[in-house]
Amino acid sequence: MCNSLIPAAYRAAGTGSPEGSGQTKTPDFPPAPEPLPVPVMDNHTHFDFPGGESPVAVAAALDAAQAVGVQGAVQVGTDLESSRFTVRSVDLDSRLLGAVALHPNDAPEYARRGELEDALAEIEQLAAHPRIRAIGETGLDFFRTEGEGLAHQRYSFRRHIDIAKRLDLTLQIHDRDAHSDVVQVLREEGAPERVVFHCFSGDEELARTCNEAGWNMSFAGTLTFKNAANLRAALAVADPELVLVETDAPFLTPHPHRGRPNASYMVPYTVRAMADLTGTDLAELCTRISANTVRAYGSWT
Predict the structure, then answer these.
(1) Which residues pair with residue 171 across a beta bridge?
(2) Is 18 inside a domain boundary?
(3) What's this model's pTM, rounded to 2 decimal places?
(4) β-bridge partners, 45
(5) Which of 52, 71, 88, 260 could form a disulfide with 39, with the two C-beta atoms 3.0–4.6 Å apart?
């Protein structure tokens, strides 16, 4: 694969432009990895962050991913604007499925403006699109939100759970420093049939809880970080039938390229790390991840 395809996919939308400079800076994307032997899907990415606003850029980014064995992705909304973008995007490229929601850190702001109920109603309307397969990312974030905002987060999370259950959609969970509280809310509300802990950040205990409940654990590039012993321990005990992979691009670029921009074509770095850590044949792991992803979201075709 031509590595120049990678930055070109994002340069088309002006990624990295210094604010107010009027100039475009080419982002320092890592080299393309070796292709995977069996295709997988990136089940959580954000094309609407800088670099993804152009449909041409999205298509080129998906081309780059497909060239290394990442044959599809789930574009994830975090507010009304990005959720609307998600619906537009899934209509433009069959390699995309979508998820729509209000991020837990955005829900308090909608509530402060008196717009939370209207925003939730629009999320439900957007979720009716046949290629929107998940409600997410929603959940709890105790790292960036505190005080009264936490009550709005909990309320929004419960409402998203209700929408996912009524529409029979997968629930994509954002869980930051809130493991026990997320599990408590899921149990109190009754979890949807399909649940994905996006960018799984727990430990062995949470992994065992997910095993028992049948909740999917999606591992991102954080698994490869030197300080992520908890994630590697969690992967070691995770039910292989519940394991997924994601980028959360443009964030969380895997080692050895941490700190540089992330994109769906980077998934193979994380998958290879997963295979090494679990002692699993790479092709076997890819086949399992692909099947798990289709069970979680349905077919891309």
Answers:
(1) 135, 195
(2) no
(3) 0.91
(4) 75, 249
(5) 71
Domain annotation covers residue 12: no
Using a 10 angstrom Cβ sphere, with 0-12 exposed, 13-18 middle and 19 or more buried, the burial of residue 19 is exposed
- My answer on whether omega of the bond before 146 falls inside 30° of 0, hence cis, is no
User: Is residue 111 assigned to a domain?
Assistant: yes
The verdict on residue 17 lying in a domain is: no
**Packed helices 204-213 and 229-237: angle between N→C axes, nearest 10 degrees:** 30
Q: Are the CB atoms for 101 and 136 separated by under 8 Å?
A: yes
Give the CA distances from residue 18 to residues 14, 15, 22, 48, 252, in Å, rounded to whole numbers and listed in that order.
10, 9, 7, 18, 21
Please report, in tens digits, the pLDDT of each residue of the chain (301 residues total).
344 455 555 544 334 332 333 444 556 889 999 999 999 999 999 998 865 556 668 999 999 999 999 999 999 999 999 999 999 999 999 999 999 999 999 999 999 999 999 999 999 999 999 999 999 999 999 987 777 889 999 999 999 999 999 999 999 999 999 999 999 999 999 999 999 999 999 999 999 999 999 999 999 999 999 999 999 999 999 999 999 999 999 999 999 999 999 999 999 999 999 999 999 999 999 999 999 999 999 999 9
**Per-position DSSP letters for 43-57, written without gaps between them:** EEE-TTSTT-SSHHH
Structural domain total, the chain: 1
* Element spanning 286, H or E: helix 282-297
Full residue range of the structural domain in which residue 197 is found: 42-297
